Amino acid sequence: MHKHDVKGVLFDLDGTLADTAPDLVYALNLSLDDAGFSAQPLDKMRHAASHGSLFLVKTAIPDADEALQISIQQGLLQHYGRINGQHSRLFDDLPELLTLLDQQGIPYGVVTNKPARFARPLVDKLGLTPHLKAMVSGDSTRHAKPHTAPMLLAAQQIAVPPEHILYLGDAERDLVAADNANMHGGVALWGYLSAADNPHLWPAKRHFEHGASLNQFFVE
């Protein structure tokens, strides 16, 4: 894959475009405290932040029964709705990348499994809303990633054929979704990968160590 193959860029949100773990883990800890559990350190929980609120809870209290886990998940979502975006930011070098894409006339957008009620306020707080040509949330279509439906909807929104889109993500489902949709998959190695992840086995065209290496790809 060469930069000339790429006419549009789509990003996963949590762990790829934005570092949202501080907000998510803070909301988790508020809910854990409500239920009488100890807070979890951010560094221990960061890898779980790409996989949804219930996964965060199960990582924090794996031995709790399912009903309690779901109850704490609901508390997490209530707290998160209040604090969403307060401590989140774009990852290093990605603001410069977005400026570069704007300068090169390459449209970009977001495809996330995060529900719209959280995803849209977050991208707004990050200052991205005026710049995104696509904003596809987990409930924008009937299916979430790794299904192709949200991917193809975003391709329509940025008006670029899938085979000319680079999709960046930090989880296996992101790269499977890109592959299924005939997009170029790029692994965001700076994201929320765990020690158990093996991104070199994922169906990706490129692996990017950090935002700077992604920027370099577009100036080569």
Q: So how many helices?
A: 9
Structural class: alpha/beta
Mean pLDDT: 96
| Residue fraction in strands | 5-15%
What would your notes on this structure say?
It holds the Pfam family HAD_2. It comes from Shewanella phaeophyticola. Keywords: Carbohydrate metabolism, Hydrolase, Magnesium, Metal-binding. This is HAD-IA family hydrolase. GO terms for molecular function: hydrolase activity. With 220 residues, the protein is α/β, with parallel strands linked by helices. Helices cover 42% and strands 13% of the residues. The protein is built from nine helices and eight strands. The chain has helices spanning 21-34, 42-45, 53-60, 66-83, 94-104, 116-125, 149-158, 172-180, 211-219, and strands spanning 8-11, 18-19, 89-90, 108-111, 134-136, 165-169, 184-188, 206-208. The strands form two sheets. A six-stranded parallel sheet has the order 5-4-1-6-7-8. A two-stranded antiparallel ribbon has the order 2-3. Helix 1 crosses helix 4 and helix 3 packs across helix 4.
Topology:
Layout: E1 8-11, E2 18-19, H1 21-34, H2 42-45, H3 53-60, H4 66-83, E3 89-90, H5 94-104, E4 108-111, H6 116-125, E5 134-136, H7 149-158, E6 165-169, H8 172-180, E7 184-188, E8 206-208, H9 211-219
Parallel strand pairs: 1-4, 1-6, 4-5, 6-7, 7-8
Antiparallel strand pairs: 2-3
Helix pairs in contact: 1-4, 3-4, 5-9
Pfam families: HAD_2
GO molecular function, one term: hydrolase activity
Protein name: HAD-IA family hydrolase
Question: Quick summary of this structure?
Answer:
This protein is α/β, with parallel strands linked by helices and 220 residues long. The chain contains nine helices and eight strands. It has a six-stranded parallel beta sheet with strand order 5-4-1-6-7-8. Strands 2-3 form a two-stranded antiparallel sheet.
